[in-house]
């Protein structure tokens, strides 16, 4: 058993965790200040059951003295990071598989189910199997309009959807050191897509700058031991990496964008905990250049990952550009990635998405197709209505 | 009791699509289990049927609705060549027994099936296939009947230090 430093619950998996907490005889949570609650999957409530869940969770927060970000702040993983609720060396659990995102802050963070969370809410601890680690040494410098998402998609393609099951991925190397926090979050976020329990970027000055700007904490050294035993070491060089696309219906089904260029799309989604930050929206806008319209017949849905990121994009004029070009810009939430709220696909439709999963049925009909890419590739695709290499725009 | 055979990388979106996640009752979830992926499952699955997958069964979302939907359909055992981590824990915690069977791929859809935990095998289609033992700590929780029952007997968790 290990104590947890923080526990995150949201509107989809939280209600079940609270029910389990009660079934376990829970009366008071272990520490309300270590519990992070917010709603992001079905906000604003898209159905009466969703609204009932929100009320249920609000009542629990009030009863227990838990600070509830409610539906005001955005997608859970972005909010946990930007509110400084994750820091190097911490153990954080969340009832969401992409909780591994906080590895970008040097935390050991992992997704758990609702029953495990019920146990955590009561006891503040959980049983863990200590994972073996795979060291990923990522060298080189990215080419034009190639970045973190292309890297993590190529890693998923190389390692496979279950190639890191129960392991921790440790990201190191020049390309990681030179990557900003937004990109590191994109990488850590998708560790789960290789089955990993955690994806950790060794904390450096950039990590501490990010964390200390959000929380009172004294930086300390935290790094892998020089003689640490790794289950495996893998070395990559991103210098010649092309934009990557995951093709239906598995995240590890990854090809160079040229292999699928020309594929017609019905919808482009730019957002999610993977790629909904200001940097991602900026990357998309940069590809747009002087273009003032997205292609006819393509629905472009843009969802900033949080209120903070939305405001940054708004003040920089990005939102205006997207709207003028024909995009639907929605309030921060999981959007089509959740496959239950809005932006769903009909049978036979094709979507290109900057999110993290292209499973059959993930964004609507099981007869629809979802491709995954970077924001740059998504913007290029939105301009032409077919999958397009952003370097050729 | 029959086998429902699935392939590799069966994700939790396939087991229970995202639009049904406001449901928490296992029996209600079961009505939508594998909806759009294998529609006859919800109608025809019977108490004691066994779901069999290939590698990486249960990958994707941490939604505990997935094991609950299978339990609601009467499934008590899932057999696979390998499991995704979160699904494996969720299954144990909710009382759905995940069994790793290296030869799971050779099991056929519709096979008659019986599980013999004590002797470490499943019998499917008239053949005995070895299963891996459920690991120690997990076994304690399964034996207690799931994590809720296990936790009821705990007054305080003995915490180890992370120092």
UniProtKB/TrEMBL annotation, chain B:
Record keywords, A-Z: Amino-acid biosynthesis, Branched-chain amino acid biosynthesis, Leucine biosynthesis, Lyase
GO MF annotations in UniProt: 3-isopropylmalate dehydratase activity
Enzyme Commission number(s): 4.2.1.33
Pathway recorded for this protein: Amino-acid biosynthesis; L-leucine biosynthesis; L-leucine from 3-methyl-2-oxobutanoate: step 2/4
Domain Aconitase A/isopropylmalate dehydratase small subunit swivel: residue ranges: 48-103
Catalytic activity: (2R,3S)-3-isopropylmalate = (2S)-2-isopropylmalate
GO biological process: L-leucine biosynthetic process
Similarity remark: Belongs to the LeuD family. LeuD type 2 subfamily.
Subunit structure and binding partners: Heterodimer of LeuC and LeuD.
Function: Catalyzes the isomerization between 2-isopropylmalate and 3-isopropylmalate, via the formation of 2-isopropylmaleate.
Protein name: 3-isopropylmalate dehydratase small subunit
Species of origin: Methanoculleus sediminis
Species classification: Archaea, Methanobacteriati, Methanobacteriota, Stenosarchaea group, Methanomicrobia
């Amino acid at each position: 058993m290990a104590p947890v430093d923080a526990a995150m619950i949201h509107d989809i998996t939280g209600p079940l965790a609270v029910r389990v907490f009660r079934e376990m005889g829970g009366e008071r949570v272990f520490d309300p200040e270590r519990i992070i609650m917010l709603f992001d999957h079905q906000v604003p409530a898209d159905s009466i059951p969703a609204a009932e869940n929100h009320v249920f969770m609000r009542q629990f927060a009030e009863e227990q003295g838990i600070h509830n970000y409610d539906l005001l702040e955005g997608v859970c993983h972005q909010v946990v990071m930007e509110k400084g609720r994750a820091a190097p060396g911490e153990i954080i659990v969340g009832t969401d598989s992409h909780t591994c995102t906080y590895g970008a802050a040097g935390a050991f963070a992992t997704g758990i189910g609702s029953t495990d969370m019920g146990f955590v809410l009561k006891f503040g601890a959980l049983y863990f199997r200590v994972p073996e680690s795979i060291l990923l040494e990522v060298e080189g410098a990215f080419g034009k309009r190639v970045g973190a998402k292309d890297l993590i998609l190529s890693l998923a393609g190389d390692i496979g959807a279950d190639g890191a099951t129960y392991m921790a991925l440790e990201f190191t190397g020049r390309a990681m050191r030179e990557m900003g926090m937004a990109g590191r979050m994109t990488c850590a976020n998708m560790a789960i897509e290789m089955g990993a329990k955690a994806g950790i970027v060794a904390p450096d000055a950039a990590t501490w700058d990010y964390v200390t700007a959000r929380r009172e904490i004294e930086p300390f050294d935290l790094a892998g031991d020089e003689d640490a035993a790794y289950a495996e070491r893998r070395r990559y060089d991103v210098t010649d990496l092309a934009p990557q696309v995951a093709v239906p219906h598995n995240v590890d089904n990854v090809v160079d964008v040229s292999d699928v260029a020309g594929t017609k799309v019905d919808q482009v989604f730019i957002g999610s905990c993977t790629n909904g930050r200001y940097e991602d929206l900026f990357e998309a806008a940069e590809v747009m250049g002087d273009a003032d319209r997205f292609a006819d017949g393509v629905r472009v849905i843009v969802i900033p990952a949080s209120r903070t990121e939305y405001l940054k994009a708004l003040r920089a004029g990005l939102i205006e550009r997207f709207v003028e070009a024909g995009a639907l810009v929605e309030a921060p939430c999981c959007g089509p990635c959740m496959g239950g709220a809005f932006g769903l696909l009909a049978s036979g439709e094709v979507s290109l998405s900057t999110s993290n999963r292209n499973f059959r049925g993930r964004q609507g009909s099981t007869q629809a197709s979802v491709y995954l890419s970077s924001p740059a590739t998504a913007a290029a695709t939105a301009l032409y209505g077919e999958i397009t290499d952003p370097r050729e725009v | 009791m029959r086998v429902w055979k699935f392939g590799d990388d069966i994700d939790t979106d396939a087991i229970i699509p995202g639009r049904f996640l406001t449901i928490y009752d296992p029996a209600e979830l079961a009505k939508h289990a594998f909806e759009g992926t294998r529609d006859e499952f919800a109608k025809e699955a019977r108490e004691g049927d066994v779901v069999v997958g290939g590698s990486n069964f249960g990958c994707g979302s941490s939604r505990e609705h997935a094991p609950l939907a299978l339990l609601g359909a009467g499934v008590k055992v899932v057999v696979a060549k390998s499991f995704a981590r979160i699904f494996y824990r969720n299954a144990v915690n909710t009382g759905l027994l995940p069994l790793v069977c290296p030869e799971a791929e050779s099991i056929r859809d519709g096979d008659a099936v019986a599980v013999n935990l004590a002797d470490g095998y499943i019998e499917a289609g008239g053949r005995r296939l070895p299963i891996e033992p459920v690991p120690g700590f997990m076994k304690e929780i399964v034996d207690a009947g799931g994590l809720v029952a296990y936790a009821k007997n705990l007054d305080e968790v003995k915490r180890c230090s992370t120092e």
